[in-house]
From TrEMBL:
Family annotation (SUPFAM superfamilies): Fibronectin type III
Keyword Signal: yes
Signal peptide: 1-21
Key words of the record: Signal
Name this protein carries in UniProt: Fibronectin type-III domain-containing protein
Origin superkingdom: Bacteria
Organism: Runella defluvii
UniProt domain Fibronectin type-III: residue ranges: 500-593
């Protein structure tokens, strides 16, 4: 029987191990099939044991049990001495007590029946299992009878100041004691009496003409194996009301219980618990508990007849009772936003004659479910079935806020995925959203959601094959009465760009005598460029980025050696795409050889013709030509023309009036050069 087996296994928790500091124990001891309890009291050691399995109990009744004892000496092995000249077996030569007679009958194998207050009789069990359980209960009830059953031993011949290890095992032949599973070890400190616990406090549950008593029996398995309950109706005299010992067997509950049936409610009684130790001692709990039966029958169920929205936050609820009951006290009206959620009380408690209540705090933007709860004089309640009221809601929710769009490019499919997110509306009756789009914020927006979106996240796919750079989105909220909000603010989503921008053209690379080079370039024709990047490479080396610019500029670089330097420009657009490099331009330092003489320059401005006349003086020599350079305000010099050796003037007509500077340089046919002439500045009006 499963319940009996659980009970016997539970008693194994009382087994005391020898794994104690200073005790040298045998190795490889198997888990014992013998449960043992011990007690030190009044200069006496009492031992109680019981096999867990019914078959072992029957076999050991014939073989008997051997009890041995060893003194604990720190650091030394245990030396056991037998305390019993012969194995302990059942002996009932002259049964005296009721327990003796019952034990003799059980051991002899007579059929048994028992009545224990845990409904064991509801299950069929083998006679052997029932005999085993009954024998256990008898041994627990009387230690003297347990000794006669071969299940107990008393030792009084020991020294109080010492510690001992007792070994109990079956006298079955053919096995070594140390390796037998039916061998149990118990450590005894003879100097200390066993502390006796008191039974736990009772807990009560007062039911209709019934008191249910419970206590935490699982926490007292080593102390008490059976219980009795006593009751006092006058507060003075207690009477035992448990006809048989109460056995705790259901380990899953952690508690034992006893149910007392009463003839009437509201008559208080006192209850106390008595615990029975494994040695048959009865220990009475020092405290009692007062309990009585109570009216637990709820009133009849109210029936809601109508619910009506009166406008705004007002709702009328009407109900009726199927029958008039004398102990009816009144009603609560309760409300919930969901039919299965927790209902909250509405207004005040109303009298038993009331059949109508107006709720002045209904939520016009949410669902409103109502129940009427009848309450009797004992506090018992019964609720009606829920009733829903349809609210006349014409107020649209607010426009959604916080709309944002994030685009991820799918280059393989030439498309983009747009993830839209926005803040959830604070209105409780908003059931979802619709999403709209347009190619221009001033155009009419079209709905792209076929179904209502319950979340605040939506994903859309946009094509890259379009002339418009952006897509614009808006969102509206819809409540449970299908009122639609205004549009949210639009959120732009830039179409993914997979076309690289066009590189600009370098328009000038001008080298000066101070070994600087001025680089100019045009603006890229692509309108989404966000950065210009200038790269340089010295002959025989890698390309290096010199500098980044936000817009077309002029950059002056320093030529650090006689090598040839190359330059190119590339641009980056707002999607991070990089253009091809521009056409490469080169620069090299000017020759270092020149004559000592420089031309003497004079510039005359003709106001009428808007011309600058350049004249110079230079001694006649071998073949040469004059190089003429001009510089505008805050700009570098650039070559504007040449003059032959036979010429001594040059006419320049700039495109606009400004302040200009001019310099000359003599270039000889053998490659020599003169220094630059002194700069002459002229202002054109």
């Amino acid at each position: 029987m499963k319940t009996i087996f659980i009970f016997i296994c539970g008693l194994c928790m009382a087994f005391v191990s020898v794994a104690q500091k200073g005790v040298v124990v045998p190795k490889n001891i198997p888990k014992s099939t013998l449960s043992v309890w011990r007690q030190v009291k009044n200069d006496t050691v009492r031992l109680r044991w019981m096999p867990i399995e019914a078959t072992d109990w029957v076999a050991n009744n014939s073989a008997g049990y051997v009890v041995e004892r060893a003194e604990v000496v720190k650091g030394k092995a245990l030396v056991f001495k037998r305390l019993t000249a012969q194995p302990l077996r059942p002996t009932f030569s002259t049964p005296n007590s009721v327990e003796d007679k019952a034990a003799a009958k059980i051991i002899n194998g007579d059929p048994v029946t028992t009545s224990i207050d845990n409904k064991l009789g509801q299950q069929e069990a083998s006679q052997l299992t029932m005999r085993h359980l009954t024998a256990s209960l008898i041994a627990f009830k009387s230690f003297k009878t347990a000794q006669k059953m071969g299940l107990g031993y008393t030792d009084s011949n020991f020294e109080k100041s010492k510690t001992y290890v007792y070994r109990i095992y079956s006298a079955t032949a053919g096995f070594q004691v140390e390796n037998k599973a039916d061998t149990a070890y118990v450590v005894i400190n003879a100097a200390r009496n066993t502390t006796r616990r008191l039974p736990p406090n009772l807990q009560k549950e007062e039911l209709e003409k019934t008191v249910l008593l419970t206590w935490p029996a699982a926490s007292y398995l080593k102390d008490f194996v059976l219980y009795h309950v006593e009751k006092s109706e006058d507060g003075k005299t207690y009477k035992r009301i448990s006809t048989s010992p109460i056995m705790y067997s259901n380990k899953a509950l952690k508690i034992a219980y006893f149910k007392d049936s009463l003839t009437q409610n509201y008559r208080p009684c006192l209850y106390k618990l008595i615990g029975i130790t494994p040695f048959g001692e009865l220990v009475t709990a020092p405290t009692f508990i007062m309990a009585m039966g109570r009216d637990r029958t709820p009133p009849s169920q109210p029936q809601i007849q109508s619910t009506r929205h009166l406008g705004g936050t007002r709702v009328e609820i009407k109900w009726a009772m199927p029958a008039q009951e004398g102990d009816l006290r009144g009603f609560w009206v309760t409300r919930a936003k969901n039919i299965s959620s927790q209902y909250e009380k509405v207004g005040r408690f109303v009298s038993k004659d009331s059949t109508r209540v107006v709720d002045y705090k209904a939520d016009p933007t949410a669902a409103n479910h109502y129940r009427v709860v009848a309450v009797d004089t004992a506090g018992n309640e019964r609720a009606s079935f829920p009733a829903y009221v349809a609210m006349n809601d014409t107020v649209a929710p607010a426009a959604p806020k916080g709309l944002m769009a994030k685009v991820i490019t799918d280059k393989a499919n030439k498309a983009g995925t747009v993830t839209l997110t926005w803040k959830r509306n604070i209105e409780m009756d908003v059931q979802g959203y619709y999403v709209y789009f347009a190619n221009d914020p001033d155009h009419e927006f079209s709905q792209i959601t076929k179904r209502m979106v319950a979340d605040t996240v939506f994903k859309d796919t946009i094509t890259l094959q379009s002339l418009t750079k952006n897509v614009y989105y808006k969102v509206v909220a819809v409540d449970k009465h299908f009122n639609i909000s205004e549009f949210s603010a639009s959120a732009p989503a830039k179409r993914p760009d997979i076309i690289r921008p066009v590189a600009p053209l370098i328009t000038e690379v001008a080298v000066k005598e101070d070994n600087t080079v001025t680089i100019r370039w045009q603006r890229s024709p692509s309108n989404d460029v966000v950065e210009y990047q200038l790269y340089r490479r010295e002959s025989g080396r890698e390309w290096v980025k010199v500098k980044s610019f936000k817009s077309p500029e002029v950059f002056v670089d320093k030529l650090q050696s006689e090598s040839v330097f190359e330059y190119f420009i590339q641009v980056v657009d707002d999607n991070g795409l990089v253009s091809e490099p521009s056409i490469t331009k080169t620069a090299k330092r000017l020759p270092r050889s020149w004559t000592a003489e420089a031309p003497v320059l004079k510039v005359t401005y003709n106001k009428e013709s808007k011309l600058n006349l350049l004249t110079w003086l230079y001694p006649q020599r071998t073949q040469y030509r004059i190089a003429i350079y001009r510089a505008e305000t805050k700009q570098g010099y650039h070559l504007i023309g040449f003059a032959k050796a036979s010429e001594s003037q040059f006419v320049d007509k700039p495109l606009q009036s400004d302040r200009y500077k001019y310099v000359l340089k003599v270039l000889f046919s053998d490659g020599q050069e003169s220094p630059f002439s002194a700069a002459v500045e002229v202002k054109m009006l």
